[in-house]
Amino acid sequence: MSTISVLQEGPVNALALNKDNSQVAIGGRNVFKVYSIEEDCFKEICNLRASKHLNLSFSCNDVAWSSTDDNYLATAATNGHVCVWNLTKSGKAMQEQVYQEHKRTVNKVNFHSSEPYRLISGSQDGTMRYFDMRCKAAVATFLSNTESVRDVQFSPHMPHTFAAVSENGSVQLWDVRRTEKCIQQFTAHSGPIFACDWHPEATWLATASRDKTIKVWDLTTSKPTLDYTIHTIASIGHVKWRPQRKYHIASCALVVDCSINIWDIRRPFIPFAAFNEHKDIASGVAWRGDSQVFLSTSRDCSLIQHSFKDASRPASKANIQALDISTKGNTLFGMRVPVSTNTTKPTGLMRKSSTSTISDQFHQSASVLHQFTHVSVCNDLSSFEFLAKNYILYGRSFPEMCEHNAAVAKECGKSNISTIWKIVNTMYGELYVKIQAMHNNGGLNLMNNVDASSTEKKNNDVVGEAAAAQFSSADDDVEGEDQVDHTAVANGYHTYNKYGHPKGDFSFGENELDLELDALSIDYRNGMRNQNQLQQQEDWTLPNEAFNIRHEIRDRSPPPEQFPNNNSPDFNDDSHSSTVDEQPTWLVSVSKIPPMPIWDPSASLIESLKHHAEKGDVQTSVSVLIVLGEHRKNLKTLDENTVTHWLMGYIQTLERFRLWNVKALVIELAWIPSISQMNQQSTRINTNCSQCLKPLQRSGWLCDRCHSTDASRCSICHQVVKGLYVWCQGCSHGGHLMHMQEWFSKNKQCPTGCGHLCEYR
Amino acid sequence: MSYQDDEESVPYDDHPNSFPKNFGYGQYEGEQDNSLSPTGEQKPRILLMGLRRSGKSSIQKVVFHKMSPNETLFLESTNKIVKDNINNSSFVQFQIWDFPGQIDFVDSAFDPHMIFGGCGALIFVIDVQDDYSDALLQLHSTVTQAYKTNSNIKFEVFIHKVDGFGDDSKMESQRNIHQTATESLIDAGYDQIHLSFHLTSIYDHSIFEAFSKVVQKLIPQLPALENLLDILNTNSAIEKSFLFDVVSKIYIATDSTPVDMQSYELCCDMIDVVIDVSYIYGVREDQEAAFDEKSSSLIKLNNGTVLYLREVNKFLALVCILREDNFEHKGIIDYNFLCFRKAIQQVFELRNKTNQMLNMCNVASSPIMNGNNLVDDNNEEILNDEDN
Questions:
Q1: Structural domains in chain A (count)
Q2: pTM of the model
Q3: Which residue in B222, B257, B326, B387 has the most chain A C-beta atoms within 10 A of its own C-beta, making it the best mutation to test that interface?
Q4: End residue of a domain, out of A373, A391, A406
């Protein structure tokens, strides 16, 4: 069955299939025809408007085909007539019955599903009429007491019941034998209802309304329950359940949307399938008894048979991830997860997944919905304290510290800071060590060989490597690996074989450079990147060979003021470095393998640290710098004053939070002398003389100014206090701890009578 | 407290923002004038009732006096019964009695016959944003009292101020009010009373639509008009047509296809545009009305739709929505329109004749007219147009 269509001379309002689905009748304002449905085309059997005496009864709002007798058609006309047509006759006799009972337009006619000759009509005048084709007048009239009835449908389950929907949004159930009152009435929509359809198997009634919803009501009990709601983009004019698919329903819109949508009622926001063949809004849908084929008519004057295999699946084009952020910063994120991973627990607070084993493929999927709420406990103050207390700044390996700190930051809700820790870890972590090591290993290895002979040289080298390669903290660790890699890498990369070979060997055959200075061969690589620093090292005696890394760093990047001649080139001059600049190309020529590119992350890191510091978060900047340890010296463009400033800022903030331990730790770990010296300062606090209120500089019991020992006397017992002396910083009076405790348990003022309201706690 | 029986003394006409009483339409001087209003008592009346501050005056001002919804905030509460005669249209001749909410008119001091006697419809306004349990009690007593006096009254309940409500809560309150009100009537033994419910708000067009439906119920010619519009649509390839009361933008009738809210709003806006523009450019010095028999307008939208407005009579306008390619046959549409207008006039004449006849017979109520005969008369004429 393929998609076929036929064009009419006017808009088509309705269609009806005969009982064996082989023929279709269509009706409209200017159209009234019967077609037989062939394999690949529609064949016109009869045109009921062929008669010369046309009147308004020939233009129909709705068409129905008797479900028992193939020869009978019924139509609803805009002038209030209900006509019954006998297809076996011809000419004027075809119009077998004309019921002129409705005062206004008839919107719908519906044949009874089992009783022949019986049909019902619903009209704009708010009445429904029950006809027997053998009678000249209506058998029964039902007054709905509503504005106008838009649709009437006999129930397929209860032979005497029919449903009527009306423009005031109410649904009524009637028994054809009781005309005085409906069995049941309920308000289903907030706008006019335009269509309804009984489910062929379940006791569901679907209603479609101008309020842009299709609702599915369960009518098994006396109180109807709303089982499903489908939200559409436009008012819905018609609905029809799909046969053999319990949850599928076809709908066509009244305005805007020209496509026919097939919905799965369990998925109410996106159609299961859509048919976009029509150019104007569709006016009717009828299934050909089969779930794969249906016919539709449209205002664009066409009749189309749709085949399900030609459907477009809007769901497949839909974005399967959704994100929204509320005004309060809560974030909702929905995404699809593979069915197999259904059991994995998402990290979010909420989880909603739907799985089903129905054959429809899209139900085989699951989705998760994460709700990320803004964690209010982590405001800036408490998180500062939390982070300060929980960061690990020393004592473990670099990656470990980074990971720990990242976890701490995340726990606190600071995911951006957590990310920074992770990035820092990646940039300077183990992987990086390896890469750098590969770059370095020629030098390192050879350096190890020379190592024993010259400690000074080694030291130079270490600095040089670090400067060149951005990394050196794990020198000792990587050496083992370097040994292994040596043979492979030594050929491939910068083979600084000058170390291993006699110096004269350095000149390659094609080397055009005049390498005259031996010194150059020692540090030509260093000179490339960090000439100045190297020079520093060169002319500075190295005192701390055996010291731990921290001291080494501090010593190597001293504050500028301590080394005023820092920048003066006294060993290498610029000409050397310029020649060296070109050298690597020649060195590389030893092997065909290109060097692995080295990305220098320090610039980005500095940028991000500065960003945080500017935002007022020196904590992150300082902590990262401390944890970086030796890698710090790669951050060459970070100027010392800024760092000092950050450190001071952080220390002051810590003081305000009374985080003395952390403060002391930071000062101790600080690599800038002016900061680390802070711990060297005296922590002594002088007591004041109780008479002149000046600090007692020399000793605790004798005031140099008034030469009295009054200062150390207890205000209560007037004895000189030896041992614990408690005093008020406000008025400088004090005394024995026990005495003062006793006094202040009863009084608030100072025991000396000076009038000060001492606060003793 | 006194009723303002004298129609000439309009209590609130001097309100700064309200339109003049004649809305700039001039005096209605049709030949039908005398016959249309034999006596003031026979005009069908619409009563507007409800608790105080439920929005009755605002509804009236917005619908019939073109007040902007925002300005209704400054309306003072009504403390006497205000009668407003909407008699500028040959179709809508209604009195709206805006009862002050705090009056207990069921009190024996008030004559129920006076109030409900000639009343066609009773609109009871419930403020849904408020606690409406009192309103429901009031509704019950009002409806039963009115029904006892005049059983022909149509009862309309406006569930008002639904703006800002979600669809679900709208539904919920409608269902709740419907159920409570209906059950209390049934309990009291008035199960023959039928209440219609409308969800309304003055901030959108729902109040106009609700009023349209109320007014339509009071127009006995509605089936005939609807039929005429259907025929016009069929033969002119018009998608949707409304017969508007120009003043209030209430639609007197529309064809039988479902009313889409957007199209209705579009047509309302078009009427505003036409009136405003013709007020500026189309009014000569010797005439006051901005809307006359030459009024017509054509707006082409960029989605291939055409809005077409034609004057039907002094107070009615036909607004059609049709596709641009169907508008090529403008000649046929215009001719069909002329037939349509003639038919409408015949409807009026028939009514006037019956009215006159009834006056002679001294029968007070107006019978429901059978539209079918009339439509058949016109059918052939319009159908023939198509062949031309």
A1: 3
A2: 0.61
A3: B257
A4: A373
